[in-house]
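Minutes, project huddle
Topic: does the predicted pose make sense with calcium ion bound?
PN asked that the exact inputs be recorded in the minutes so nobody has to dig through chat later. Recorded below.
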Amino acid sequence: MEFHGEVRVLLVEDEVALADAVRRGLVAEGFSVDVVHDGRDGLRAGLERRHDVIVLDILLPGMNGYKVCENLRAQSVWTPILMLTAKDGEYDEAEALDTGADDFLSKPFSFVVLVARLRALGRRTQVRPAALSAGSLTLDPGTAVCSRDGREVSLTPRERSLLEALLRREGAAASKTDLLREVWGPEFDGDPNIVEVYVGYLRRKIDDGFDHKLLQTVRGVGYRVVADA
Ligand code: CA
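Predicted holo structure (tokens), as shared on screen:
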């Protein structure tokens, strides 16, 4: 086995047998593992001890995985988080990423894939994401605060992800297909016009009442954000 150095994992999973099997497997692979079976304990452990990566189930007693993730990020814990999503249609990957998770794995998962993802995440440096901006608009992916001209704009997680995807392009246009994949996830199979719908929501929130429209349509291409002076 290639040695990567010890990776400290916090595993938050309420299925005790699964948690135990994963813990034993990870220890055998050279990881050190803390296990908790409740969302509140997961939050506490994430705040109290430094880990290299957190594996977080979504459906948990005490507090669900999304809330644990949001709370950790809100308290400036930037440990990479791998969320375990169940493919029952009730929860989706895009939502996991919206709450500040770095990666997701759907249950049932392959142990080999889990180990590979954890090694990749464990190597990531834990940095607070930098604020994104375009002229008078700023979006801080860390705190999720968006503002235009110093006035806070309240966005839903999905609107925020869409805006973030556009801002990361620094003025270059994004196609609807790219936005759909990045914001709604590769497995989204609903109506692709959802992108237009959300662009409309964003326009109302960030451009209404301003002469300069930040969010512009590039005919035949898609959308881009054009900074004002
Ligand atoms: Ca569960």
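Observations noted during the meeting:
- Residues 14-15, 57, 59-60 surround calcium ion (CB under 6 Å).
- The chain has eight helices and twelve strands.
No decisions taken; revisit at the next huddle.
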